[in-house]
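Problem: given the chain below (317 residues), write out its structure.
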Amino acid sequence: MRLKLKVFEDGYSKSKRMMLNIDYLQNEVFKNRLKFKITRVWNIHYNLGIYADENNHVIGNTQYNYYLLQDNRLLKKNLEEVIKAYNSTPEKFSLKEQNSKDAFEYGRKCGKILAYAQRILEDFDASISVSINTPSKKFYYADYNTNKKSTLFPNGEDGKAIRLYLLHTLSTLNFPLYVLKKYEKNDYGWFLKSYYISYYYTVHKLRDLQQYLIQNKLLTPEISSYFTELDIENAKYLNSTFRNYIMHSNLTDKNGNFLIDSKYLDKDIPLFGLVETCFDGMSYYELKDAILSEVTKISDILSRWLNIESLKFKPLD
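Solution.
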């Protein structure tokens, strides 16, 4: 599950294969929910749902959510092998009740582990408190068929993978920014970790895409202008040491050396001086503000690139 947070842990070429395999599976699942077989070849179904907040910020989509619960070993195979696997046991890829039970059980186990960790940390000698807001939740949705031309997929099948890649990246970037951020009350270190990991992997995924487009001579003037705005080659806050801590929650490196410089070590500040050590004395809150500014900029550019403002969202009951 931790690897899934990387959006797609490989370069764009392998990610493209995985995305199109997911797109195929979701297309088959939703197509086969149509009552009459004759209608399944009409391409009238939806195979992608996009979720947004009240301000039309994309915060998730069904194909990325589906990816989170699939076996990457299958998704990395050729489409022909995925088709064969689906045809042999379509029920394994369906949206039936058992899938919901499996997801619920996974969530329940995660909750038990987190509750146990919280009980242990209550006795930790640090002046931190865990408290969050309980904001009202108003979400919206829009349904699309990725095989048909639309404002989201203006070229139909051509370029579909790139649009899905950008949509998945935007979804993982915006969920912390526009959903989790509303819960922030007393920040004891968790919220920056959430914002930072989405920032870190967004930059890397966009760099992968840019290199793929350059190598395959697909970088049009319009796309190039978006990359100029993004300026990902000069991303200022990429730090592998800080990233490793966030992904592994270990305050020592692979050689057992403590990551926090003694001059910054302070048990009463968020992350105990790790931020100050990794970012030349920059405070936790200074870094968080800087990351939020970068994330917001990237989100706005990707939203324009995907023409999100043209999508017609409906209230989600």
